Amino acid sequence: MTVFKVLGAGCKNCRSLEANLKKALELLACEARIEEVKDYPSILAYGVSSTPALVVDEKVILSGRVPRPEELARLLANYV
Amino acid sequence: MIGGALRLDSAGKLVLAALLWGASLWLLRPFWDALIWGAFNLSSEAKWAEALHFFLYDTTKILLLLMGIVYLVALLRSYFSVERTQALLGGRREGAGNLLASALGVVTPFCSCSAVPAFIGFVAAGVPLGVTLSFLIASPMVNEVALALLFSLFGWQIALVYLAAGLSLAMFAGWALGRLGLERWVEPFVYEISMGGHVDARPPNFTERMDFAAEEVRQIVGKIWPYLVAGIALGAWIHGWVPQGFFLRLAGPENPLAVLGAVLLGVPLYSNAAGVLPLVEALHEKGLAMGTLLAFMMAVVALSLPEMIILRRVLKWPLVAVYVAVVAAGIVGVGYLFNSVLG
């Protein structure tokens, strides 16, 4: 199963990204596991400076913004 | 919808939206005039009718301008990112670095909740402390909402002046803080964390940029419109009922301490630009000097307790205190300068 990681310290944008991610996965009819990464050392280990960020297959595919579910679905179509 | 019916591509839809926006703006005053003085047949002699007209017209005008400017700025910002800014600033000397950092602070999309990783990223990229601080000062101070509102309330000259002042202030304050050699007051863990990997994100295409901009408008306007409406309502009240010279005793152009008082009052206050600027417009109408008011606004917007609390995670209290002091002093200077130049 694909694992998505949402990087962020828990502010409103991070929660929005997670919510939109869930909706996007519904649109794609894809089952996936979503993990939250909240500690700074781990976030920085991915080279991310602006949260929230989205990681799939250990690659950062999105950082610093919260796309709508439809746009996220388009973006994720390549990875699921 | 219309764009879809006409089978326009993204750029076409953008042009159509821009035309509709421009037309709405142009027709706004005639619309409200016709409605309030015409259809409702109210008299412009009645104070409350005048205040109502002011409130309705100002709210719709500001909202329209805000939407347009936030959209444009967001489109521009989609070409920048914190990671890119860090790469651009890495290893730069102070001076030129401070100038570039300030400019980038304005155009880089930056959420204060990512201040900690961003700061660490700056350090990891080899950006000097003072240059990083220039970025952190410029970002909240010269934000698109403030510029949009200044432009819509006072015209492009004042908006430009504000932009120049904000950039100069960020540049000099950051440079001064850098010169003071306060690295020992940065939390040690900032220098100890190692930055890994790299961001693999594909750059967005134009449609995605438009989506991002539209989302920004939704989020920003959605967040600030209550403050805006409250500020305009308060402004309408001041406009209609507070006598002309009321504030002059307190803070008119004759009072040399006005700027200092305004900044001291503004620093502990926290609001976004949307709440402050309509108030500023009304106060200016009642005689307060523009320099004093801009200084007040900068103090409210650039320095805030929530921001200091976030900064505290990477900077020790003495550095946070010096940061506030230097920026506040700069704002006071800007206020006096503007009062003497703008008259």
Would you mind describing this structure in some detail?
The complex is a heterodimer of chains A (80) and B (343). Chain A is α+β, with helices and mostly antiparallel strands and 80 residues long. Chain A has one domain: Glutaredoxin (3-Layer(aba) Sandwich). Chain A is 38% helix and 26% strand. Chain A has a four-stranded mixed beta sheet. In chain A, β1, α1 and β2 form a beta-alpha-beta unit. In chain A, α1 packs across α3. Chain A is globular and about 35 Å long. Chain A starts with a strand and ends with a helix. The model of chain A has no long low-confidence stretch (mean pLDDT 85). Chain B has 343 residues and is an all-alpha fold. Chain B has two domains: 107 residues, no CATH class; 215 residues, no CATH class. Chain B is flat, with a radius of gyration of 22 Å. The termini of chain B are far apart. At the A-B interface, α1, α2 and β4 of A face α4, α6 and α11 of B.
Question: Short summary of the structure?
Answer:
Helices cover about 40% and strands about 25% of the residues of chain A. With about 80 residues, chain A is an alpha+beta fold. In chain A, α1 (about 10-25) crosses α3.
The CA-CA distance between the termini of chain A, in Å, is: 9 Å
Structural class of chain A: alpha+beta
Cα-based radius of gyration of chain B, to the nearest Å: 22 Å
Q: At the first level of CATH, what is the class of chain A?
A: Alpha Beta
The helix count of chain B comes to: 17
| CATH topology grouping of chain A | Glutaredoxin
